[in-house]
Each structure stands twice: as C-alpha cells, then as structure tokens.
Write a structure and sequence with these properties.
Order of helices and strands: HHEHEHEHEEHHH
Helix content: 40-55%
Strand content: 5-15%
CATH superfamily of the largest domain: P-loop containing nucleotide triphosphate hydrolases
Radius of gyration: 19 Å
Number of strands: 5
Structural class: alpha/beta
Number of domains: 2
Length: 212
C-alpha cells in the first residue's frame, strides 16, 4: 500500500485540496512516474541536443502539460521562450494558432505547443519544417509518435499520485491511502481524472449525506 505523508496546512476545511486552484499545470512541480521531481535544466540540455525541437509524449493525465509549463518557465528565464500555444479550438483554429505562434516567435527561440496531436500529420509535418527552416525551436506535448523526436515519455503510478497529494493542502484525514489507490484504478492511471475523483470523495467525506 502506498504511504502518504501528511503536510500540515493553515487552509480551512472549507477548502477542497483537489480543486484546480491547487492542481492545474504550474501549481505543482513536474514529477516523474516515481514521484521524484524532474530537473527542467537537464531536459532543456537534452532539448538543445535535439536542435530545440522535440515532443513530450504520454497518455492523457500523465503530466505532459505540467512539464511543458515548467520547461516554458525555464525558457522564459533564459530569454528563449517564443510563446505558448494551447490547442483545442478545432482544426482550423488550431492550425492558425500554430502558424501565428511560429510567425511571432523570433529566430532562436522556442514555441511551446500543448496538445500537438490535435493537428493532423500533414499539418504537423509542415509546421515542423517551417520551424526547422526558419531556425525556430518547437516543444510540444503529444499522445502518440510523430515527426519530432521524443524529449521525455511521461507515465503514471499510484506512487506518483500519492506524491502529488503530499504537495496539496492538508486533507484533514478525509482522504486516505485506500482512496488514492482506488481513484488511480478507477481513472485507469489518468492522474488528472484521479484528482477529479478525489475531489468528489473529499466533498462527500466532509459533507456526508449531501447529494446522496
């Protein structure tokens, strides 16, 4: 059974520790499948070896967006960030967003694109070619294999979910170890969905009888 350390918090019990204010990308440090913190500097060094064009790959809810945000922050500190584009507005809008992002990205900087798989193979190949010819970097998140080399493959585990929980406000004993394992299994390893499930469990535990 996964052991969860409890970190005291001054948040009141009216605050659900699994709300998006605590769990959205950028709120938590990127962790690997063992729950250990990822070193963004090492990944940026690896990105440089790939010519500043690579993909963060993994299934839904495996931490790709969280890692992309952390790397974008590091690129910003180094004055190398060319912009961040999040896809999901439909194929034409997504294609236009990537085109505008590349146009606004200065040569030598890196454009970060979340949900790259929303482009089809032809559009993705064209965008990669444009980035390569124009000397612009491209760092994307994607579910599957594509033309870009893999920077890192993300995966999940119950231990990862437990380590994330340690970084959230105190749960006041309302959510425990068995809840973590059950939520992970019910979500089929999708950490984002597991956190949604734990949000609901916390609400039911602190307000028994409500909504039942």
């Amino acid at each position: 059974m996964t052991t969860i350390a409890v970190i005291p918090s001054t948040h009141s019990i009216t605050t659900n520790p699994f709300s998006t204010r605590f769990t959205t990308p950028g709120r938590l440090p990127p962790l690997d499948h063992r729950g250990e913190e990822v070193d963004p500097a090492k990944l940026l060094h690896r990105l440089d070896r790939h010519g500043s064009r690579a993909a963060i790959r993994g299934p839904h809810g495996s931490g790709k967006s969280t890692l992309l945000v952390a790397l974008a922050d590091q690129l910003r500190v180094r004055d190398r960030l060319g912009g961040i584009v999040r896809l999901g507005g439909g194929f034409r809008r997504d294609l236009l967003a990537v085109a505008r992002g590349l146009a606004a990205c200065d040569r030598g900087r890196v454009l970060c694109v979340d949900s790259w798989e929303r482009l089809d193979m032809v559009a993705a190949a064209v965008a990669c070619t444009v980035a390569w010819i124009s000397g612009r970097g491209l760092l994307v998140t994607s579910h599957g294999i594509g033309v870009l080399p893999t920077l890192v493959s993300c995966s999940t585990s119950p231990r990862l979910l437990a380590r994330i929980m340690e970084r959230l406000p105190d749960r006041f004993g309302l959510v425990g170890e068995i809840d973590v394992e059950q939520a992970f299994d019910e979500a089929n390893g999708n950490i984002r969905e597991a956190l949604f499930l734990l949000y609901d469990r916390f609400e039911r535990a602190r307000r028994p009888g409500v909504g039942s």
